[in-house]
Structures are given as structure tokens and as C-alpha cells.
Amino acid sequence: MRSATIKRVYDKPADTDGTRILVDRLWPRGLSKANAALDGWDKDVAPSAALRKWFGHKPERFAEFRKRYRAELKGNPAVAALRATKGKLTLLYGAKDPQINHATVLAAVLRRR
Description:
4-stranded parallel beta sheet; globular
């Protein structure tokens, strides 16, 4: 894998996205599968239900969320599968905040070897 970028799943797909993988555990509200234009949906790299619920997208919890989520990702075979993606990889997420979400953490983990 050469690069991993993130993009909101509600944003219009682009030819430059490469392989588009939804990395949320739950399907995004109000979005049809056709409009999502996905190449895959990998629930196994999403934060656990308990961690997602605890975080609640509260900015003051993000540092601790990042730490706990990275611990969940260690040894997760789904991470290795994403790393094996050829060409550009776009991780799609449904959260409203483009900087305080799990996809930012996952992309950073994928970029590191």
C-alpha cells in the first residue's frame, strides 16, 4: 500500500479515491449502498462497540480513545489485510468531525510499518 487517506462516506466519490473501504461498524444513516460506491466494508477494523459508545465523539476523550483504539488494532488481522491493498486506499467514515474520528487513527496506524 502506498498511501491511506480518509474521506467522509457522504462525500462524492472521486476517480482519485482508489480503493474505497468503509471502516465503520454500523452502516451510515441515510446512505444507499449504490451512492456509497464502496469497494468493501471492513467492520473488523472499526472500534469495538464498547469503545465507540464510551468515546461518543467527545473531543476531550479523543487522546484516550486514540490510545485504546490503537491497542484494539494491535494484532488485528484486518489491519494487515488493509496494508496489503495495492495502490491508493481511501478509508471512509461517517463521523461529522474530519479530525476527531477513528479513521484518522486507523490511517496513521496503516502508514506506519
